[in-house]
Amino acid sequence: MSTTFAGVRSLRHRTASPLVHRIICGAPSGNKSMTVRAFSTSPARHDNPEDRDHHIKNAAPDVRGLDLIKRPRINKGMAFSLRERQLLGIHGLLPPAFMNQDQQATRVITNLRQQPNDLARYVQLNALQDRNEKLFYRVLCDHVEELMPIVYTPTVGLACQKFGFIYRNPKGVYITINDNCPEKIYDILSNWPESDVRAIVVTDGERILGLGDLGAYGMGIPVGKLSLYVALAGIQPQWCLPVMIDVGTDNQELLDDPFYIGLRKKRVRGAEYDKLIDNFMKAAVKRYGQDTLIQFEDFGNKNAFRLLDKYKDKYCTFNDDIQGTASVAVAGLLAATRITKRPMADEKILFFGAGEASLGIALLTVMQMQKDGLSFEEACNRIYLIDSKGLIVKSRTDLTDGHKIHFAKDLPPTKSLIENVKSIKPSILIGAATIGGAFNEEVIRTMGELNKRPIIFALSNPTSKAECTAEAAYSITNGRAIFASGSPFDPVTVNGQKFYPGQGNNSYIFPGVALGTILCGVRHVGDEHFLLASRTVADLVTEKHLSEGRLYPPLTDVREISVKIAVAIAEMCYKDGTASHYPEPSNKEKFIREQIYDTTYGQFLPDTYDWPEEDMKSGFTHK
Ligand SMILES: NC(=O)C1=CN([C@@H]2O[C@H](COP(=O)(O)OP(=O)(O)OC[C@H]3O[C@@H](n4cnc5c(N)ncnc54)[C@H](OP(=O)(O)O)[C@@H]3O)[C@@H](O)[C@H]2O)C=CC1
Ligand SMILES: CC(=O)C(=O)O
Ligand SMILES: [Mg+2]
């Protein structure tokens, strides 16, 4: 077995694979005991795919009986073979019939389709994840376009709003303001059953999608995002940890909600809040290692920018709402410029909203325009933003901190969106202000009058907050709009032509960025990684996609996109010396593909298993 890239990493603090140990299992019928070789269910960290295959095929559990069926990571339900049932102490605990994973997956999707609504589907999928993880991901991967809107936006938004009511089983770790010291938080993290955590998605629930402060109900978001780590990038589920930082909520409805699951107090802010986040960061890397990726998700605006600035060079961290969103939007814009046949530097962009999403996109667009030859000031001059107080202009006195100031214009402080569209005459209109329907007929029509091919992105989530529907964008512009939205819309037919609206959602980006970061041990994730991801995604958009109205490849390709992003990040990071896992894999794509999560069941007792003599004599047969 060759020394491996990942094997070297494991010397630091991870458990080396393969973990070969012996467990004692009871015999199938009667109390005879026998010895079975057991392997870790983690993928092997080897360059040789045959080794990896060997480990997966020979994986055996370290529990038996009912405990095995109750462990979702290894439970196979009725797919346990007779031999497995007999040897692992579950014979008779399952119905006598056998089902393979294909049959189980068919049963699950049929059942899901019969549910009365999407929330019921969410609850059912959630329960499946608690019961049989491989089957959950198998079904999710097989039906990604159909099920993404359930485990992710828009349904995850509704699920968060009803989180207390639909709550069944804990998923992830809750850290509260009452746990505000590093040792306590370390102990809480140590209660999590997995020690090889490589990626954390953390929220404090203050800005859940466009739904505002949902407090501890926001836990649905880290859970959903990490499901996409696995489903869209093939990151191993055991490496993923959802975290909810509960500092209270300012949402009075939740404080009055009898089912509320969080601390019933107003949000703690200021020094005590900062200390909690600091303690969490310290405890997380102490527990899981300095290169543990920590993705900030759905924090309130002020904290999101502040914490990103504070931690970006100190930890392996990024803010998905700022940087991931920026990356997917710039990818869409790069693809759109192939339709308009104009370089990005020639576009004039108006943002409706000037928060995490809009400013993140604006700043990354500036970076791209600089690469196209503009100066920072020239690029900023092409970008206009409107916030809750109106257009960002130099005469405003409230722009002293933050990034808005870069984009302030010498213009009158016009508040209305339509007035700004008419006077600025943008070629691109991007919405991320959580005001559903803000791009009304007049706004869209005006964009259509100003531009041959108006670019309109309605990025707010969930669907109820989208600035306009795909139908409105295409029909009002007579099919000329180049459109993308944060939440999915069905295809729209205008004048006999079918348009497939792109989903401009950071889910095209963060899974692949995380995959590359984790596998190469990138210590800091920066804007250059996100711009690289934008280009990678944009390059995967074909002329056929563009002709169908798509600015992104279809969601069904997203696993492949994630691998491509991860490979691009690996190439960049080994070249510029920011990867920390050595030796450098000679074939990065092959290495990455070998680490991808496999949804097929492990065969706990291989066919080649050397069956002990006495068990052979006991006469059980494998059907
Ligand atoms: N598609 C995707 O991948 C993503 C989509 N989003 C979505 O984008 C939306 C915004 O998120 P985010 O930027 O993080 O939130 P923020 O709270 O950071 O920003 C919201 C912005 O909207 C502005 N705003 C609020 N009301 C109005 C109004 N009436 N008129 C004009 N502007 C207004 C706010 O103004 P002010 O600055 O004055 O407060 C602020 O600038 C959410 O719906 C979120 O779900 C977010 C991330 C990713
Ligand atoms: C998609 C996302 O991250 C958001 O809406 O917050
Ligand atoms: Mg988000």
Automatic annotation (TrEMBL):
Protein name, per record: Malic enzyme
Binding residues for a divalent metal cation: 297-298, 321
Similarity comment: Belongs to the malic enzymes family.
Biological classification of the source: Eukaryota, Metazoa, Ecdysozoa, Nematoda, Chromadorea
GO BP term (any one): malate metabolic process
UniProtKB keywords: Metal-binding, Oxidoreductase
Organism per entry: Plectus sambesii
PROSITE patterns (UniProt xref): MALIC_ENZYMES
Cofactor needs: Mg(2+); Mn(2+)
Keyword Mitochondrion annotated: no
